[in-house]
């Protein structure tokens, strides 16, 4: 089976949910992993334990004993596993439904005992110049954090390393600080993607200044599409982080709110950098069109100069080609050479005039 056929097979469309009641557990999106991978990190100020499980049922049977739990799941669980997970952590049915729908914009929902966040993870492929996007769902409770990722990306590896090494105060603080750390790791990833796109944009600008080719235009349009994809995710994320930083609800303690405000500043910086790249791409498109128009004008001017140079020759040839019995130079043995000299003299004179006016280069 081809790759495209496999993608079509693994993709569930929104139309599959038509007519179903709210909270219906139907996976929407592309299955990017063949099997689930579940990891558990439980920790306190002095101790940390890491476990891996092959199924959600096995993970839910594990007797946790440390204050803070972090469940991370790669892939989309089946409906029955999601229901079991919802019963264990008392999740609202709409949260379970949203987790299985991987085609959402960033948002935050307060369900009383739990807070649900949707954030987009982005990765940039330098070879294809395409941005890939994955949905990351974060569920924050009083003593636990659940994260759902479509596939392993390594985006949370720095947070895991900080937990293992007890760097900073992440082990001393509760689940709300862990949720902040995960959100901060995702926002920091945006800077890396923007940096890579910015480098490609600068190279494209140099190439455009050297010569505007159709390949440059294709690359320019592709970069504009990828930045538009980023923009659709970053702008809603700004509102999400602003809501969290205002401290609405009881999910984030006062000592965590300053860190959320720092994430908000980073998000604003990301937006400003993204808009700067978009403005640069728009300006490059104008430069390309101007360069193309200038090149066309140059070619038209060159053709016009050639036509003007040979126009007198055409006129003189037409005059001497008229069928009159009496005509100057007609009987002169040097008439032919005189006509050629006249044609050449006019052509050289016009060529010198156009050269001095810089119309030939």
Q: What's the gyration radius in Å?
A: 34 Å
Number of strands: 9
Helical run tally: 9
- At CATH level 3, the topology of the largest domain is Beta Polymerase, domain 2
Structural class: alpha+beta
Largest sheet: 7 strands, mixed
Order of the strands making up the biggest sheet: 4-3-5-9-8-7-6
In CATH, the architecture of the largest domain is 2-Layer Sandwich
The outline comes out as rod-shaped
**Taking all residues together, what is the mean pLDDT?**
84
- SSE order in H/E notation? HEEEEHEHHEEEEHHHHH
CATH class membership of the largest domain = Alpha Beta
Q: Low-confidence parts, pLDDT < 50 over ≥5 residues?
A: 1-11
β content, as a range?
A: 15-25%
Q: What name goes with the CATH superfamily of the largest domain?
A: CorA soluble domain-like
- Domain module count: 2
Classify the helix fraction into a percent range.
40-55%
C-alpha end-to-end distance? 58 Å
General description of the model:
This protein is of the alpha+beta class. It folds into two domains: 3-291, CorA soluble domain-like (Beta Polymerase, domain 2, 2-Layer Sandwich), CATH 3.30.460.20; 302-356, Up-down Bundle (Methane Monooxygenase Hydroxylase, Chain G, domain 1), CATH 1.20.58. It is 54% helix and 16% strand. The protein contains nine helices and nine strands. The protein has helices spanning 3-10, 56-60, 79-89, 93-100, 157-165, 175-210, 214-245, 257-320, 335-356; strands at 11-12, 29-30, 37-43, 48-53, 68-74, 107-110, 115-125, 130-140, 144-149. The strands form two sheets. The protein has a seven-stranded mixed beta sheet, sandwiched between helices. The protein has a two-stranded antiparallel ribbon with strand order 1-2. α6 (175-210) packs antiparallel against α7 and α8 (257-320) runs antiparallel to α9. The radius of gyration is 34 Å and the shape is rod-shaped. The protein starts with a helix and ends in a 5-residue tail after the last helix. The model is unreliable at 1-11 (pLDDT under 50).
């Amino acid at each position: 089976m081809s790759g495209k056929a496999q993608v079509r097979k693994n993709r569930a469309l929104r139309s599959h949910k038509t007519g179903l009641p709210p909270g219906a557990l139907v996976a929407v999106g592309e299955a990017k992993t063949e099997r689930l991978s579940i990891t558990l990190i439980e920790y306190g100020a002095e101790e940390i334990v890491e476990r891996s499980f092959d199924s959600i049922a096995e993970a839910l049977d594990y007797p946790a004993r440390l204050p803070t739990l972090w469940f991370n799941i790669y892939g989309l669980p089946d409906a029955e596993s999601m229901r079991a997970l919802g019963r264990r952590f008392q999740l609202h049915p709409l949260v379970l439904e949203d987790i299985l729908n991987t085609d959402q914009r960033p948002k935050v929902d307060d369900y009383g005992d739990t807070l649900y966040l949707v954030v987009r993870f982005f990765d940039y492929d330098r070879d294809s110049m395409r941005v890939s996007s994955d949905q990351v769902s974060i569920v924050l409770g009083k003593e636990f954090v659940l994260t759902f990722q479509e596939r392993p990306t390594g985006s949370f590896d720095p947070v895991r390393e900080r937990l293992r090494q007890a760097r900073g105060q992440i082990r001393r603080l509760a689940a709300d600080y862990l949720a902040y750390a995960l959100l901060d790791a995702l926002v920091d990833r945006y800077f890396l993607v923007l940096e890579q796109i910015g480098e490609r944009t600068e190279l494209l600008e140099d190439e455009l200044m050297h010569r505007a080719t159709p390949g440059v235009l294709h690359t320019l349009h592709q970069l504009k599409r990828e930045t538009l994809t980023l923009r659709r995710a970053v702008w809603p994320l700004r509102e999400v982080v602003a809501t969290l930083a205002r401290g609405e609800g009881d999910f984030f303690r006062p000592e965590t709110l300053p860190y959320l405000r720092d994430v908000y500043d980073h998000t604003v910086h990301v937006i400003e950098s993204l808009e700067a790249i978009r403005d640069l791409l728009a300006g490059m498109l104008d430069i390309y069109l101007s360069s193309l128009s200038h090149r066309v004008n140059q070619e038209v001017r060159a053709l016009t100069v050639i036509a003007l140079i040979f126009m007198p020759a055409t006129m003189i040839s037409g005059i001497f080609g008229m069928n009159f019995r009496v005509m100057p130079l007609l009987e002169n043995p040097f008439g032919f050479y005189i006509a050629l000299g006249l044609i050449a003299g006019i052509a050289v004179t016009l060529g010198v005039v156009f050269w001095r006016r810089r119309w030939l280069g």
